[in-house]
## 1
Amino acid sequence: MVSHRSLASRLLTLLAHIVLCAGAAFMVLPILWMAATSFKPATEVSIWPPRLLPDAPTLENYRGIFEDAPFGQFFVNSLSLSLIATVSVAVTSLVAGAVFAKYRFPGRQFLFMAILATAIVPFESYMIPLYLQLISLGWINTFQGILLPTLFMSFGIFLLRQHVSSAIPTELLEAGRVDGASEWWILARVIAPLSAPALSAIGIFAFIQAWAAFIWPLMVANEQSLFNMELGLTAFQFRFSTDYGKLMAGSVLSVLPMLVIFVILRRRIIESVALTGMKG
Amino acid sequence: MIARLADASRSWLHENFTRDNWRLLLFCYVALAPVLLLFGYVRAWPILKSFVLSFYKWELINPVRPFIGWLNYEMLLEDENFHLALKNTAVYSISTVMLSTLLALPLAIFLARKSRFSAIYQTLYFLPVITPMVPMSIAWKWIYDYNHGILNYLLSLVGLPSVAWLTDPDIALWALIIMGVWKMLGYSMILLLVGIRNIPSTYVEAAAIDGASGWRQFRFVTLPLLKPILLYVFVTSTINAFNVFTQVYVMTLGSQSAPGQAVRVIVFDIYQNAFQYFRMGYASAEAVMLTLIVLGFTLIQFRIARDKAGQDG
């Protein structure tokens, strides 16, 4: 009887693994298919019946896209936009989070609630007035214009406030003050190092989000020299809509940095999403 | 009375605003100033402004911009494009969220048990979450391709006819939903996994001692305790899904596989009204509707969470 049941439960586990493997294949296949297609010569791309792996793998598509469009420029743009956004989100989250967590001042509650409450309003629903403001600033079609909305993140401020108020004892700040340290010194030398885990979670998150930014650059950037990878790819797609070998090569270039980050920081990223709930 | 108040406030000031306190206060405001300026300029002001704009006939190319009251909203209620966008977005959101949560729940329960393979499965299922939307939309477009797509090939293997995944707007909506589930599943899985692992093992053990079988354990122990996080997953992913735009733009617009007919969703409609027809006021009214919908979902979540807290307390 006992062995009978264990056999049944083993079969059930096996079945579960089969289902899980099929599911995992479904999750990974689009990425694999994209990568495989990018290495296929033009003659093999639309061969029927389709084959996953190329017979004669080639880098021709990768060479081709750099000739057809300034993908190097797109890549550099994406990288600089994302890096600046990451640093800015980390710094603003740290400073505001720490001030909201450890200091008492008139307006504290109101300001914090305002920052938090507006976080649920989707960016898409206030991008029009923001765009009009950008016109009067003269920042349409500029690097700083594309960058602007990614520079701070409500959720980062919220997360850092939670972290600082729960994980850093106020006595530590007092000790610094007794030693004659300025508030800025305390912020940089006491609070910042102790907030490293929360800061890296929010930094990773800011980088991933800034890298994938699309609708705002689409509105603000008119010149190709300002396009990020996402915009460059879209424009490229409109011109070469059937050349899937090249399209997949460009797509791989856009996905690759995220995959590299994911491989290196897998645990941190999963934790950071569990923590932040993938919200702006 | 007034004198006493003044006295009280003076002594309060005296106690709280010594030289040191002034120094601290100054630090707070100086430190917050850049963040607040940014917040005001990039978020708070535009949100207020979008409400204001929605009451004007505000067109980029027309310098005369009269106040028209509720007219934009009245026109919106009769706008067939808006109706279609609302319907499509609702179908997309509800289907994507339901499907991905229903798939993520058993997945999370299975992966919550410590096993050798759990980490590998988590990684693979999570992978789509971090991939950017544009390249993956292009990849999915290639998968959905009518003549050379791998999906139609797989269908042909089991004897099914080819499907025009992206050409017919009705089917294209489902193509978007399939991709949406693919992208969202890992996110729901991770949140539910954390929720399940946070359930104190004493509850489950107690249920086991009472002789509760696997299903009853799930139904009467795990599920009720998981309800708050399940709700959180529902609300955040619904809000996310309501803002669907990028994949619609990339997959169904202006390319040979979709001759001009996009799947109309709310953000696409806003985008088109504002940046192709330059009707900023009208598009703002539509944006306000989007805000209200999202706000509605959030309030429902707070409401349920509060009722729940009330019951428990």
## 2
Amino acid sequence: MASHHLKVPKTIKLFIGGEFPRTESGRSFPVVRHGTDAHFAHLCRASRKDFRNAVAAAKAALASWERRTAYNRAQILYRMAEMCEGKRDEFAEVLCYTQGLSNDAAQKAVDAAIDAFVYYAGYADKYQQVIGNLNPVSGPHLCFTAAEPVGVVAALFDENSTLDEITAGLSAIICSGNTVVALLPGVTGTLLAPLAEVFATSDLPKGVVNLLTGDVSELAPQFGSHMEVQAVSVQTKNEALLAELKIAGAENLKRVAPPMQTNLGLNNILQFVEYKTVWHPVGY
Amino acid sequence: MRTTDLTRTGTRQGKNNKPAAKPMLVKRAKAALNIETPTPSARPVTLSFEYAPSLESADIVKLKPRYGLYIDGKMVEPSSGRYFPTVNPATEAVLTEIAEATEKDVDRAVQAARKAYEKVWSKLSGRERGRYLFRIARIIQERAREFAVLETLDNGKPIRESRDIDIPLVAAHFFYHAGWADKLQDAFPGREISSLGVVGQVIPWNFPLLMAAWKIAPALACGNTVVLKPAETTPLTALLLTEVFEEAGLPPGVVNIVTGAGATGAALVSHPDVDKVAFTGSTEVGKEILEATAKTNKKLTLELGGKSAHIVFEDAALDQAVEGVVNGIYFNQGHVCCAGSRLLLEESIAETFIEKLKKRIDKIRVGNPLDKNTDIGAINSKREFEKIQRLVALGKEEGGEFYEPAGTVLPAKGYFHKPCFFANVSSSFTLSRIEIFGPVLTISTFRTPQEAIMKANDTSYGLAAGIWSEKGSKIQKVASALKAGVIWANTYNKFDPSAPFGGYFESGFGREGGRHGLLPYLEEK
């Protein structure tokens, strides 16, 4: 009989500023294998303080990330697709164990997750031309409108969010130069480890993507009220929560984006850009 | 120029640059001091720094004794059995032999492209087409140094340029267009668009692989298949690119490469089963192609010659402008369709500017293109070399004030030409009117912006123009009045896959790059 290898399970922690800390609160919640009582992992139940730390990291990363050339951001997003391909089996295993997907369905979910990285890699240096324009103003002025990232975005996923929805949502936010703090609630939190490893090994600057696990009802008010957060992406169909976030975000006029209609689409980028119109005189 | 992080996940550009020959420099500087200090002299002591040779190794390139035609995913013999040599213009040594494609070979290539279009490529989704282009971009990044050295060997351009400009831009063009493949509908919302079919593309020798990328990448992204003819003097990097296609798993026949001279190109553009022709090259040949395709429904884009004006106003940052003008005309030995070959100086600063320009070109290093310190490499062919010499002689006859660096020593072998200029040139000079395509600048002066604009527009071409001024509104005013497809303000010769490029008037029509560059490869239903 072959020697028996006792598997070393991966500890799943948070991903803040390029590091993998445990929640400062010391709290956790258990996740079981889908459809059974068997233990799979303990996930961190991130606190308000963890969220604030993550926003600080996202804010610090913003200046460098939004100044990168669009081409550079495109290449980094494409690198994520490469890394994701390399971790295909790990992703599939997590999806099978925790969401009860068949292996085929899990592999398809990984395909779609990779598609999302590639799709938004392609858009990083193109959305500006699709949405930007020269304004034919009546007078001796050169006038054009260019899109720019809004800043720090908080992304609230749903317990039923799929892997590809998560990669699409995050890619759409960062491809234009935003940085993001995302909550992967409930069982989706088990995807944090392989996802964070993809981000950590793609030459993405630390802090551009920050991932938390925990409870929507506990953290949603913070997403809404934090003054350094410029926009919130809400990927949960809970209408009441959406309304609550809009009210909480009114204080700093937060942009609150409803769930994506499709994974791949220009609109997912445009939810998180601002338009800048530049006027310049024309004359000797 | 997009030079940042092009190979961020692959080889770092310029890594092999030795940390300069510092000890050597110090030693030589000391030697120079020792000679000059003991002699009491009224003249200031000048240190003469010489660069130690810093040669890029050519070992990375493995050339085959001869190359066939790339048709339907295979290297095949030409039906004529004829081959012709391709030469390293820096040494005049034969590098290898290239197949000469006949009309019959071109027909095979077009058939292969048609089959690939109908059976494979037009049936793939944009996402899948994009996937192949991304792979190609990545492999080019991984093999960047090999491509750069080969380009320098075959073309004669300095390794500094092939390594830092040509090849990174090649990868960028494939990467950029890869991303468009599944977003074409977003680029033209509300319009029903489709691919064209088989595209015949003929490209020049000045940026061999870059022009191949400009042509192939948008064509494939938009769903077409390709037959490409590289220039007869610079086919090697396009042939090496076929290895990249293989490694990327590109289906056979999607890109076919036929080598040869003018007759091969003519056979390609006049082939009845080619749906679109894209040509970059001389205005003369462009007009022939226009005539040859006139009685067909072929779509056509032409990127032709230029005689671009470079205007320097008195309120410009002069030292920066000198650098810009030097880059504008002497980049790539002046073999640039958009070269700023007509310098227009505001009269008040003309004398100062010309003195600065003289000092600057005295320092330009002409020589071995594989030397990392070389600024100007070899003229690509004997034919071009002799043409430049002929035109320089003509310029002297017509009475221009000629200047070339006296101290520059050219290598004994190879086709090398010093950077030079003619001052006090009027619009009626031959040199002001025809494209020289070499390191030769003409200089004239103007007194008002209106005069500068009039002189700049006084040409049958309209590819590019440069403006130097620290006053933004003046730049915009002049830019809006110039009749040229690309205007560079306080910079020159900048290229990016997202920036449309192309000319007005006899510089051709159609644009390459950006959203506008997709249109020539699509048809509206």
## 3
Amino acid sequence: MGKVEEFVQAMGSKISDQKEKKGRFYFNVTNEDLREVVDYLFNTIGCRLSTATGMETFHHLEILYHFSDDTTGQYYCPRLLIADKEHPKVKSIAPIVTGAIWIEREIFEMLGVEFEDHPRMEKLLTLHHPKDLDKPLRMGRAS
Amino acid sequence: MNSNAVPIGPFHPLLEEAEYFELKVDGETVVDIDLEIGWMHRGHEFLSEMKTFTQSIYLVERICGICSTSHPIACVHAIEDIDNIEIPLRARYIRTLVGELERIHSHLLWLGLAGHFIGYDTLWMWAWKYREPILEMFEIISGNRNHYGMMRVGGVAKDVDPGSIPELMKHLDMVDKKMEMIAKAAKDDPVLRSRLKGVGVLSHADAIAYCATGPTSRASGVPGDVRKDEKMDAYDLVDFDRIVLQNGDVYDKLVVRVLEIIESTRICRQCLDKLAQIDGPILNNVKEISAGEGIGRYEAPRGEVFHYVRSDGTNRPIRHKVRAPSYVNIPTYAASCKGIPIADALITLAAVDPCYCCTERALHLYDKNHDPLQLDVLRLSREKTERIRREIYGNK
């Protein structure tokens, strides 16, 4: 059994909408199950968090995590959809992956997503910007 | 705890890119470090969404002047990943050749800066002198010494002229000989070893926790190397070794880079040999990109460059995420700088290779009454090397 199949079996119903193509495995995860899935990827499989991509779509805010299994070149990409665009709030994975601290701060400032239990939830890139930029990556996205 | 703050940056002659570091010091010892980035945030991701896929490649080439081909390679990989686009064999070798030449010149640039920071100005001048033939090779291949404009979705923009291959080989031969000399000097020089061994250690566990990449993590025993792990371009067709050391200190980071230069020249030589033998197209005609998402990455000189592109089927990306290696390597300062003397802070910060340019370094140290004291960290670093040299060789 390959590592991806093992992962799917271990996670069971915690992951859904799985899409697999050469070396890439995308799937959806809920906010409740996020930390358990991330913990398995980081601590059991030994993946490295490359980064996370935040974006706004018509119906959701979306955070797509990119975990790389460097022993195989396989990417695991948990996708978290946030329906509440006005007050988006999700669990931080920084308590599990220290490398997520800056990544979550950037998503917070670009899209306004608040991460619960983050050690330092403040802007990363535009902290000293002459203009008080408010969620710049959400501007005009819905239209 | 009674500590003083030593601010470095955000705009400082030493920093090629504007960044702000605040060292909290207790006497001569660094007890904590705070980092602030974003001083030159240019909004590339948002800009890219207003460009066509082809224009995006030129845009991301301008993210970094030193590793200016790593971003375009990762970008075209991401776009090609959407439709599983194959590229011609000749283009695979050319991409690999250009990427490895960039690694050599970037590592030589860092080696020179590192030498200057610790008072080895001869090393600085050697390294930058031997970087010059690499830039000449870029000029022969692409017409440019920087920003080569070589990458395209489906292949490369320019072919390597077979008539220029003997000339390129001559340049490589010269760099090869000199690199053996520098590698020997780095391994045998007792002052260099004493100055850098055990300095600014990033432990194996911290390298994993911070998700560090490139020479920063490979010097700490984490073997990740995208060239080996993902086998893109011609990396599965050439023979080279993965350089991994264990101590995580500045010395191991230096040795990793020196040995990687030698491996890179091996790769370049194999690519040029192949390019002299094989013929064929360099670009597949890609007319459109389907709706979908793709991940592309490349092992830049500083570590993994990551690009994520999502397409809605038009000729522009609707989301283009870019993550450069320094973004994950710089936070490791929080682990590697604590407990070291101020004199070692400069070389520890530089060991990650966060795009520093080297002129002069003068910092302000504030005493307990918040009165500024002039403190030159570069001078402190060089004085420490001189002390070690005298301990070993006496006053010769």
## 4
Amino acid sequence: MSLQLHNVKKSYREPDGNILPVLNVESFALDQGEQVVLVGESGGGKTTLLNAISGITTVDSGEVIVDGVDLTRLPEAGRDRFRAERIGIVFQTFNLLPAFSALENVLLGMTFAGRADRDFARTLLERVGLGKRLSHRPPQLSVGEQQRVAVARALANRPRLMLADEPTASVDLANQNTILSLIRETCSEHGVSLLMVTHSHDVADQFDRVEQLANFNKPEVHA
Amino acid sequence: MNLLTIAIKSIRQRLLASSLTGLSVALGVALMVAVLVINGVIGRMFSQSGSGYDLIIGPKGSDLQLVLSSIYRVSPPIENLPWRFYTQIRERRDIEHAIPIALGDTTEEGGFPIVGTIPQYFGVEYAHGRKFLVKGDFLQGTWDAVIGAEVARKNGWDVGSKFRMIHGGQDDHVHEEQFTVRGVLKRTGTPNDRSVFVHLDGFFQIDGHGKPLEEAINREADFFGVSPETVREWYGDDLAHAEEEEADGHDHDHAHDHEVLDAQKEVTSILVVMKTRNNNPLTRTTGSLMLKNELKEGFQAQGVNPIEVMRRLMDNLVGNVRLALLYLTGLIIAVSGIGIFVSIYNSMADRKREIAIMRALGARRQTVFSVILAESILLCLGGGLFGLLLGHGLVFAAAPLVEARSGLLIDPFAFEPIELVLFPVLIVLASLIGFLPGLTAYRTDVADALSN
């Protein structure tokens, strides 16, 4: 199993003191190499779920097991290290650092995992079609190219799981399918499990396994 | 790629703001370097120049003026001492060297101070362990002169050059007598570099340098507290002969040797080196103290220790100015530091997302804290290094101007070891500056910053 969630609960305290439940997932699993798309409406807890799986956010209770490691038992530094080494993330807004070139953006993720491999970073960028744009900084790249850099960066540390948060939401229709194919193909090539969240049914239709977030996430106030 | 590269990239990302903040540090450091160098130069100047002598004996009056005129040649002499008094000092058994100097005139070209003295002047160390070195010869003949290195440079004089002098206080009166340069002193870093030394015998023989006999006798009588008749008795037949010559209207054909009666000779001050007894250097100090006290109780002369006087001046006046300048430049650096702090701290709001991205990619809290701290240190050190070069460039450029205006000799390549302390200080300052923004980075809520 690449990912297992058991009784994961998460809620936020609102400014007025009320508790706002966001996550209540009894069970969810993803096999190694499997590609799953989660469909849900805005505000449905999709991003919080991804943050919980990547260890960015802690959960109130339950188990978040990634590649056999229960992240809820790791201290923050351990979760950071784990995220750097085994989880790749593609954001909706790419989140590239503008001061760094395409190559350096890919190397940046490797640096935090303690294994900057310039050759592999270059290979990844060539794979996503940016072999001639290595030294270009994000503002010098098109939107589609920026998202390709983001995909290459997510794969930089040879992760076991890739989390993609609406990766096609910021690109035009022409680029949407290209990006989607690229993510799916590169994950397959590297044997990486993929969990993508989207609210687009067009995107969801391209996946064999489509999960409606509302079907397994039933937030409720808990103690 | 490492943390330093990430920090450099971040600085380059905000190039204008980073450059301006770095520049403010650079200006502060440049100013501090310039102050430190000048501070060191002044300190050495005032502590070394007179340190070869134990005592300066001159007429009663301001001890500071006596030192400034005799050693630094930046103040007019107080009055003069009779030659007879000098000979009495010279013959004391507790004195190793008693060197008379006569001041007041300047060179016609360049306006450098003339020092009439005896060859022995160059045999005494001008500073502890430092002896005069000369190209050519020291003073020998009556019309010989030795010039300082700066005089040679400025006036283009060398061995064999001839010059005339302007009488003290009368700019339009140029003495007819000419002196010939016999030697050029190697640079000493003291006021000797911009002085012209002429043989005292020649100095006395210059028309107008010997006092009229009657006036000289009265002046000497007044000095020693005796009657003019007593003074006449001291000089006996020599005086009668001189009075006859004066009555005949002796034609002072210039630049030739003729006798000047001792009663007509005066010196501005006497530079004294005491004898060392039993190889104990302290005996020089005690000897000079005893002589100083003795003079204090006596007639119209005083003895001053040049180092003591200059130290007092440094502590009371110059020292405070130096200290104020140091505080001021320290303050400028601190203000620059605050500028860096404000710059980095303000940028934190814009950089929360950047930090969150790094954290999402696996950077630990300590890592982003270190990146911010490294930025602060790089800005401070970069600014500091630039400031160091700028400061020395400033000293290099200003040295000739300062010398021309004040006579203060500054080595254009002067380096003060204390400057090395600037860098650890800057690192500490940068760490303090970077701490709070670093803490902001440390505490960044990743999920929140990414969702915004």
